Automatic annotation (TrEMBL):
Keywords, in A-Z order: DNA-binding, Phosphoprotein, Transcription, Transcription regulation
Segments forming a coiled coil: none
UniProt-listed SMART domains: HTH_ARAC, REC
Domain Response regulatory: 3-120
Residue numbers bearing the 4-aspartylphosphate modification: 55
Superkingdom per UniProt: Bacteria
InterPro entries: CdaR_GGDEF (IPR041522), CheY-like_superfamily (IPR011006), Homeodomain-like_sf (IPR009057), HTH_AraC (IPR018060), HTH_AraC-typ_CS (IPR018062), Sig_transdc_resp-reg_receiver (IPR001789)
Protein name in the entry: Regulator of RpoS
Annotated HTH araC/xylS-type domain residues: 431-529
Pfam families referenced in this protein's UniProt entry, alphabetically: GGDEF_2, HTH_18, Response_reg
Stored Gene3D superfamilies: 3.40.50.2300, Homeodomain-like (1.10.10.60)
Species assigned in the record: Paenibacillus allorhizoplanae
Length: 541
């Protein structure tokens, strides 16, 4: 029995369609309803309907965007679109995407019945209850994406052209250009961007570009690194490549702005004449895209623009982030967020070279890394990464909004760590260490371990501990362990090996040596109460 998912943001309309289909007494089964494209995608994953009946205009993900994503992820699922009289241009776009038909709102019951009867006959003819062909297509797409990703990273060579044929990649012409597209984050509100899974924007953009590309060129579009969409375009006429790409990207940007209300920026690399050179074209496209930081997005950026921009230099002194440093150390999160935004914005406005912008931000972050080291909060701040990876990531951003968000997150996290450290320092760090040793003497304890717990550097903690306790941390720890060992030797029958292990010593030889140094007796002699070198024998009081 074929199944239907109804997608419309108006409850009355959804319920009305469901009732019409139920009254039809056909084989069609309405398995669920969805309020918009985002809700539909969640349900499609679980329910795998045979047909989607969707409205065009909806919040979050509309009907056009939904079709792009379904076409990529679930090619075996058919779509029928509904639209008002004024939305006919969107209905035409849906038909171009492969929609089975469209229904003009408000439609009559007979129109719906006629359409579903026709689709049911097609479904029975094609015998589509088993979805294996769709799954096979998904596997093929995944393999193709893997090969395409290998091309831009330089891992596929001329002698491996057969590999391309095996996954359906055909590049008959001599020249291949790499085009990278990225969503301009400042063209999408935070609420809209984070309300959805950001990867859905990439899927929509990928399919949109692929559809536009297929009209004029031979090429392949795929998602690389979640938010980066890459197109490999095969050209017959090398002399007109730049003009052709400018015309193509202008058309894509215009249409996507009108249909989905956001903008894209493209980076274009120089044409490659063999498979080995594709990775160079990809790197050039990525470098060109970085200049979005300097001149803004919603345009095509290429090598020619990069060359012109590099000729321009500005006299500008290094940014002063004294106030940002002060707010971080004071734990003032609100002002840290504001100052980080101002700092990055100022950099992007006054420098014409993105490399220098990245360098300045990395210098700033290294300063705060040094502060984190001195305060012993690096582990709490960076969690499961390290400062090297943080700096590498900074160089991957080509959007001022993304750089601002990243710096706000990093410095905000550091501010919180410092604030937590200050709260914990209300109790003397030495008191915390003493209490910890008394409770955990049997465990492996080092000065570095204790320094992390009290948010101090090891060298500073060592100095502070000695000034407060009158002895070094190591001597204090050893003394506590020996005191416990003495008690166990006198008041228990445990073997010396067991006592050694239970008081935190690494091995029995080390235990024997330390014990004798402190008490002038071996553990055995201490237990037996024997005198050594003229000393009085130990007596239990």
């Amino acid at each position: 029995m074929p199944s239907i998912l109804i997608v419309d943001d108006e409850t009355i309309f959804r319920k009305g369609i469901r009732l019409m289909i139920t009254d039809m007494q056909s084989e069609w089964n309405v398995i669920d309803e969805a309020t918009d494209g985002a809700d539909a995608l969640d349900k499609i994953e679980d329910l795998q309907p045979d047909l989607i009946i969707t409205d065009i205009k909806m919040p979050r993900i509309d009907g056009i965007q939904l079709q792009y994503i379904v076409k990529e992820r679930y090619p075996h699922i058919s779509c029928v679109v509904m639209s008002g009289y004024n939305d006919f241009q969107y209905a035409r776009e849906s038909l171009r995407l492969g929609a089975k038909d469209y229904l003009m709102k408000p439609f009559q019951r007979e129109e719906l019945y006629a359409l579903l009867t026709k689709l049911q006959e097609e479904w029975l003819t094609e015998k589509r209850p088993n979805k294996s062909s769709g799954m096979d297509q998904q596997v093929q797409n995944q393999m193709r994406q893997h090969v395409l990703a290998s091309l831009i990273t330089g891992n596929v060579h001329h002698g491996e052209a057969e590999l391309l044929d095996n996954v359906g990649i055909q590049l008959p012409h001599a020249n291949i250009s790499c085009l990278i597209a990225k969503l301009d984050r400042d063209s999408v509100t935070d609420e809209r961007y984070y309300q959805l899974n950001p990867s859905l924007f990439s899927i929509y953009i990928q399919q949109f570009i692929q559809e536009s590309l297929d009209e004029s060129f031979k090429g392949y579009v795929f998602i690389h690194h979640e938010t980066e969409i890459v197109a490999l375009i095969n050209h017959e006429n090398v002399s007109s490549i730049h003009a052709d790409m400018e015309k193509l990207t202008n058309r894509i940007r215009k249409e996507i702005r009108v249909q989905s209300n956001f903008t894209l920026t493209f980076g274009l690399g120089s044409p490659a004449k063999d498979l080995e050179s594709i990775s160079k074209s990809y790197k050039e496209a990525g470098l060109a895209l970085l200049y979005r930081l300097v001149i803004g997005g919603d345009r095509l950026l290429s090598n020619e623009i990069v060359a012109e921009m590099k000729m321009e230099k500005l006299d500008w002194h290094a940014a002063d982030w004294h106030s940002l440093n002060q707010f971080v150390q004071e734990g003032d999160l609100a002002n840290v967020q504001q100052q980080a935004s101002l700092y990055v914005t100022k950099l992007c406005q006054q420098w014409k070279d993105p490399e220098i912008i990245h360098q300045q931000i990395c210098k700033m972050l290294l300063h705060f890394y040094e502060l984190a080291v001195n305060l012993a909060v690096v582990k709490q701040w960076l969690q499961n990464t390290d400062v090297k990876q943080v700096l590498v990531d900074i160089y991957s951003y080509s959007s001022s909004k993304e750089l601002i968000e990243r710096c706000q997150k990093l410095l905000g996290d550091l501010t919180v760590c410092i604030g937590n450290r200050q709260k914990k320092m209300v109790t003397s760090p030495v008191e915390i260490v003493v209490r910890y040793v008394e409770e955990h003497y049997a465990e492996s304890i080092t000065l570095n371990t204790m320094a992390e717990i009290v948010y101090l550097s090891p060298s500073y903690l060592s100095s502070l501990f000695k000034s407060k306790q009158g002895q070094s941390f190591i001597d204090f720890l050893t003394e506590k362990r020996i005191e416990k060992a003495k008690s166990l030797l006198l008041y228990s029958d445990e073997k010396i090996q067991v006592i050694s292990d239970s008081t935190g010593f690494t091995n029995i030889r080390h235990f024997n040596r330390v014990f004798k140094t402190i008490t002038n007796r071996t553990p055995s002699e201490f237990r037996e109460g024997k005198s050594i070198a003229g000393t009085e024998p130990f007596k239990v009081k």
